[in-house]
């Protein structure tokens, strides 16, 4: 009998209503771009878990960046899984209802943990980059779903930037990620608008999701041509936070993955957190480009920090809370490497969901999900 069948039988016999554990799987296809798509690339795969509420099981939603043919304007697909990633169905679309440019790049999904403004706990947020087809503008916009991802409404414009060109001297904004800090929603992103920096990392926060506070730096390097990019932050059990970023201009390798630690997710650019440290496994592997970080309680008193980068199929782990000088271990995975691959802790915290599209500029780019069993 296939393990999934055995598992289903066991779940039935034991009366388990919410699936909490799955037999590990590799490269389950969520979505393959049809030949009508203007480019086969997919990237920036993102998921969110909607926890079991007693009636439904745990639900996963997934989205990613892709190149759907226009019209209609390019949009973010939302696919849904009710079996922790073993199978997926199309569920909804997040479409640009404001700019008539499309939602073209770098989506991020987030489930609200408390009511903020008119948005109750459980609201699903989707931030992404709205860019016209000619690339003349970049606009980080926020959408919300109050029905678990079925329908979406525009919430607010967060940050407005110039042309979608990743060169120093241009002024785009890129790559939002979301957290709740002190009862505010914080959107972190890469920012090329400040003439002092080729690119820096910054955030803005809001107590109602409508009006956004000032731009606050998170990683801004003194050398103009340095390009820190792609903020992802995870909370650690010692009260600290870890921010991973790719560091364009890093001495070890261009876009080597670095991290900073901070007591607050809002103060990563303070002297106590700067300048950040490179991640390198004890066996020599150096992660490069488009990192993602998460933390799981699994793996001992400190739990385990898990970092993915587009250079490697495997992940980089640390069981010492990323303390300065602590060791990183390279852990093999069978999942494909991909550009900005997400690592997410599933309800049974020894299972890590790796969700990714293709490599940068690749030509065979299904969005897939895999389980890394710790
Ligand atoms: C998403 O939008 C496309 C294009 O309009 C449409 O064909 C598709 O049915 C939509 N998907 C869902 C799940 O609504
Ligand atoms: C690019 O597209 C935007 C949005 O449609 C439009 O406002 C702008 O004029 C276009 N720019 C050029 C140079 O075509
Ligand atoms: C937990 O992390 C701290 C801080 O790095 C370290 O001193 C300690 O040895 C770690 N404990 C274990 C069991 O690894
Ligand atoms: C999963 O897909 C990736 C990329 O396509 C490939 O490198 C890897 O070998 C696949 N894993 C398995 C177990 O087939």
TrEMBL record:
Q: Which domain of life is it from?
A: Eukaryota
Per UniProt, the keywords (alphabetical) are: Signal
Signal peptide limits: 1-18
Protein name stated in the entry: BNR/Asp-box repeat protein
């Amino acid at each position: 009998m296939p393990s999934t069948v055995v598992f289903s039988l066991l779940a039935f016999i034991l009366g388990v209503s919410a699936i909490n554990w799955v037999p590990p799987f590799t490269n389950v296809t969520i979505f393959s771009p049809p030949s009508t798509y203007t480019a086969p690339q997919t990237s920036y795969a993102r998921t969110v878990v909607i926890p079991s509420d007693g009636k439904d099981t745990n639900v996963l939603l997934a989205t990613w960046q892709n190149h759907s043919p226009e019209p209609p304007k390019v949009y973010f697909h939302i696919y849904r899984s009710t079996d922790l990633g073993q199978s997926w169905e199309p569920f909804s679309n997040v479409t640009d209802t404001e700019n008539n440019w499309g939602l073209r790049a770098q989506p991020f999904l987030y489930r609200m943990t408390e009511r903020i403004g008119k948005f109750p706990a459980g609201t699903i947020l989707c931030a992404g980059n709205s860019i016209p087809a000619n690339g003349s503008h970049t606009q980080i916009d926020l959408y919300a779903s109050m029905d678990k991802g079925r329908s979406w409404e525009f919430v607010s414009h967060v940050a407005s930037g110039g042309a979608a060109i990743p060169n120093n001297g241009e002024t785009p904004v890129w790559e939002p990620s979301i957290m709740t800090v002190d009862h505010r929603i914080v959107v972190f992103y890469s920012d090329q608008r400040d003439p002092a920096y080729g690119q820096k990392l910054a955030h803005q926060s809001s107590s109602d999701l409508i009006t956004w506070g000032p731009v606050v730096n998170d990683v801004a390097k003194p050398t103009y041509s340095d390009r820190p990019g792609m903020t992802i932050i995870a909370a650690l059990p010692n009260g600290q936070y870890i921010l991973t970023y790719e560091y364009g201009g890093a001495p070890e390798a261009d876009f080597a993955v670095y991290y900073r630690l901070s007591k607050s997710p809002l103060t990563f650019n303070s002297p106590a957190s700067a300048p950040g440290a490179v991640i390198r496994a004890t066996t020599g592997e150096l992660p490069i480009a488009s990192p993602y970080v998460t933390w799981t309680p699994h793996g001992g008193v400190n739990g385990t920090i898990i970092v993915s980068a587009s250079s490697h199929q495997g992940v980089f782990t640390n069981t010492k809370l990323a303390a300065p000088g602590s060791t990183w271990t390279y852990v093999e995975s069978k999942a494909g490497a991909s550009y900005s691959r997400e690592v997410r802790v599933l309800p049974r915290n020894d299972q890590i969901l790796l969700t990714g599209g293709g490599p940068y500029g690749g030509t065979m780019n299904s969005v897939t999900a895999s389980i890394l069993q710790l």
